[in-house]
Amino acid sequence: MNREKNITISDVAEALGVSKTTVSRSISGKGRISEETRNRVFAYIQEHHYKPNVIAKGLAQSKTFNLCVAMPGDYALGELPFFQEALIGIQQEAGAAEYDVLLCVCQEDDISALERIVENQKVDGVILLRTFVEDAQAAFLARQGVPFVTAGTLEDETVFQVDHDHERACRELVTYLLSKERGGDLPLVFLGGRESIVVNRKRIDGIRGAYGALGIPFPEERLYRGLVSDGEIERIVRRSLQEGVGGIVCLDDRICTLVLRLLRQLSVAVPEQVMVASCYDSAILENNSPAVTAISFPARELGAVCCRQLLKRIEKESAGRRILLPHKLLLRESTKDGPA
Amino acid sequence: MNREKNITISDVAEALGVSKTTVSRSISGKGRISEETRNRVFAYIQEHHYKPNVIAKGLAQSKTFNLCVAMPGDYALGELPFFQEALIGIQQEAGAAEYDVLLCVCQEDDISALERIVENQKVDGVILLRTFVEDAQAAFLARQGVPFVTAGTLEDETVFQVDHDHERACRELVTYLLSKERGGDLPLVFLGGRESIVVNRKRIDGIRGAYGALGIPFPEERLYRGLVSDGEIERIVRRSLQEGVGGIVCLDDRICTLVLRLLRQLSVAVPEQVMVASCYDSAILENNSPAVTAISFPARELGAVCCRQLLKRIEKESAGRRILLPHKLLLRESTKDGPA
DNA sequence: CTGAAAGCGCTTACAG
DNA sequence: CTGAAAGCGCTTACAG
């Protein structure tokens, strides 16, 4: 029941009548050793379940075999499955490489948890799961010289980043909506969250791009950004409905959830009276009735790619500076053509 | 830009003309040292930003200052916010004690990630975020003699556990529903998920208890368990509606989400035609229209308490074997009295 | 109160 | 091909 003292490399060496050096080299595969010796070592450690102590190994090599992943800790729910999924993707990829994942919860204005972990020298690299326009996390890591990659864009060519092309995805979505009868005749309204989050800006860029490409002037007055309070969103939706909008485009799923609830309460039919679309596809939207048109950004894959990139950087292999992953536009009922 | 070699305890000792022993003791506070020496050390390490290498410290003390938290990795969405929240609670509590959190994704039938981490000796203890009737994780950890605590119940008095009283909570919920006009006259139907998950069993125990206390025979034929496929759930809901049930009690939020969608598609009014309640309160339910009656189990707090318990165990302090946290019954529109 | 030395469990030049 | 020894950056009996 008590944790039995683990068998060490010295035990193995002694039992086999060889030096620790030999055992170490047999296991790591570095340096020349005779087939025979190696086999003896392998046989012994198999049988006695010897497992090298990774921490000690790390200390000797000045490595930790740990990655840190920094994720936001706010109570926003809609977007959360994204981080959870990304986390799982990272963990699986890291585990396969015998690395482990240290969790770290960071706010835009409080990166103390990240600082602690890095200053304690507990990780070989960091993955940032959310990027900010002024990113204190990235600035800190650059200052410390810690390898890191971002799941998301950062306006800094020196940073290794992996992202979906949110700009393009939103352009596609809006272009599609504008092509619809109501999207063309009746105006669209856009509801976006915190502007300090890079992805929110990218989405807006994409929206603008759609109008630009079609040569339609962009209705600045119908772009709302920095929305945080439920009340604010409610007010805007009500007003927009009165003014007769053709569609509501939500830049994130928390906003979309609120909008859907509101429309239900107001007995506004989707898509008959107004279309609804969102820029991220959490299961909530798919399970909604009607299903909501959205853009799908596979989060596990994003996490896995980030992890691979970071590992390459740590191992000093070459890695791409910026990788864009494919997305998918999911056209569903909420933007079906109305009764015309 | 390059990660500067960190300053070590030897550097400090040398600079101050004292021994490493003295520096070490000044910092740890163990052993006697003169005020003056200590102050000199403190001043120096402040100024030069010396941070002890936690890994080396750990090696010397046979500790890692890491906790592992094992969470499920299946694609079930409804319950996910729970794990995410618990994780955040754990991380914050651990960080405050200078511990870090290693993530580990485990399935009921695949605990290889946990095995790797434990065998690599990378953690001082483990928190299990989901418990199974036959729990391979707990069995493994007990065998290895690794301290662990479960967020959830386990039928094993030797295990340290923290949980909400799901049984009692469900009893209260069902008692309430049975007290309603429709709950009393019209039958209730119960939809539950995988039976290998302990909490699902506890919930069923609670439901039975409610009937028992009221002296009403429990309608076994309306208790469905082990539901996994959407189609299955849909079939049961349709049939139940035809048979005329008064309320649908969902044992978890994934099921509840499906049920709500289905009812919407079938244009069945909640609560006018049928009541709906769920045994866990994710934001989805609160944002639903109508808001859904549910039981609230604060997950961050659960995580935090688990973490504190585990730290106590690791530090060999005494800790409670089993801690029950309070829940809250949230009565909302979805179970309001009908027009009667 | 302070220090020299051994030790935590590995790795890795350097010799042989 | 193999080993003795030093080292990774700490801690902690044991002496003084």
Word description of this protein:
The structure is a homodimer of 340-residue chains. In chain A, helix 1 packs across helix 2, helix 8 crosses helix 10 and helix 11 (230-243) packs across helix 12. The model of chain A has no long low-confidence stretch (mean pLDDT 90). Chain A is elongated and about 85 Å long. Chain A folds into 3 domains: 9-52; 66-164 and 299-325, Response regulator (Rossmann fold); 166-297 and 329-335, Response regulator (Rossmann fold). Chain A has helices at 9-16, 20-28, 35-47, 54-61, 80-96, 112-119, 136-144, 166-179, 181-185, 198-214, 230-243, 253-265, 283-287, 299-314; strands at 66-72, 100-106, 125-128, 148-151, 160-164, 188-191, 223-224, 247-250, 275-278, 293-296, 322-325, 328-330. The longest helix of chain A has 17 residues, at 80-96. The first copy, chain A, has a 6-stranded parallel beta sheet with strand order 2-1-3-4-5-11, with helices on both faces. The first copy, chain A, is built from 14 helices and 12 strands. With 340 residues, chain A is of the alpha/beta class. At the A-B interface, helix 4, helix 5, strand 2, helix 6 and helix 12 of A face helix 4, helix 5, strand 2, helix 6 and helix 12 of B. Chain A binds a DNA duplex (16 and 16 nucleotides) through residues 6, 8-10, 18-22, 24-25, 28, 30-34, 37, 52-62.
Strand content of chain A: 15-25%
The major sheet of chain A is characterized as: 6 strands, parallel
Give the % helix of chain A.
40-55%
Placed side by side, the strands forming the largest sheet of chain A appear as 2-1-3-4-5-11
CATH topology descriptor of the largest domain in chain A: Rossmann fold
Give me the count of strands of chain A. 12
User: Unreliable runs of chain A, pLDDT <50, ≥5 residues?
Assistant: none
- Largest interface, C-beta closer than 8 angstroms, per-chain residues: A-B, 55 and 55 residues
Order of helices and strands of chain A: HHHHEHEHEHEEHHEHEHEHEHEHEE
**Structural class assignment of chain A:** alpha/beta
